Amino acid sequence: xxxxxxxxxxxxxxxxxxxxxxxxxxxxxxxxxxxxxxxxxxxxxxxxxxxxxxxxxxxxxxxxxxxxxxxxxxxxxxxxxxxxxxxxxxxxxxxxxxxxxxxxxxxxxxxxxxxxxxxxxxxxxxxxxxxxxxxxxxxxxxxxxxxxxxxxxxxxxxxxxxxxxxxxxxxxxxxxxxxxxxxxxxxxxxxxxxxxxxxxxxxxxxxxxxxxxxxxxxxxxxxxxxxxxxxxxxxxxxxxxxxxxxxxxxxxxxxxxxxxxxxxxxxxxxxxxxxxxxxxxxxxxxxxxxxxxxxxxxxxxxxxxxxxxxxxxxxxxxxxxxxxxxxxxxxxxxxxxxxxxxxxxxxxxxxxxxxxxxxxxxxxxxxxxxxxxxxxxxxxxxxxxxxxxxxxxx
Length: 394
Fold this sequence. Notes:
394 residues, mainly alpha, 18 helices
């Protein structure tokens, strides 16, 4: 008999609620111009099902569907201008300082640090996308982990509650400066959930953290469900949550740090590849190699550039003297991306249908840490799902 921790839905009410809200939003907008009609028809149905099932997994899913349907009747939540103005001013100042400090590398670092992507040339962006590393230009879990890690080092002797409240302030400020991209909100909420669990003396559950971050984003802005950034961000982190341990075990013949880095790249690629093919029509053939080679450079690029950029706000001369460090590291990273993308077979044209995407993800779920079927059948389900995905593309 499966233990509760291995049953992804019944043991995790937050996951049920999050899935329900997403389904409710999707149903409301699935047929153009019928949102209000769909809400009026389906809201009573899902509310009644929730009451009937009595606050179990199925009930929370039904209540989530009802909440998602109802939420689509209202516009996105926006913070008051008076609250956001100081952060917009800081964003402009930091972006300007970045441009003056880092020269030709400023557009790339502006995107990595503050989410300002307007200045990146098409050639640089195409090189990063051809390598499958364009995700490092989108503020997400990678960047939040650097900020949270730096905070943890600075406050390593502080009480867990102090770390938690300090992180709330810092991560909110970072999200506000970056104009609240969904990938950064997702990563920040998950990081705060982890810190809260530590402060409360409880075990952090990653699937529940993912679901809670999705709920926060979708309740604030239901249209985020249809955002490419939202879908890619959650696709990557869900696959990392589900497949990280099995893939790491498969790579156990490697030293543990290398196995974990490779597993992270594999899982992230599996989570984003079907969506990338669907939206962009290309496959980065060398993506796994590029991620394994370039991702270890990113912490040094990010942290050094962030430190120099912040120093520049108070001591411009000192920051200018130190700017050669992130500029050199960024140059190495960019040259590596250009070299990999210049290989003739680095990127291939491809196409996939939405139904095929669904079957690919079902195959990943079947062999994950959170089995939807019995262990004896999971490989058969995986193979059948992949076969169905191939049939959908014929």
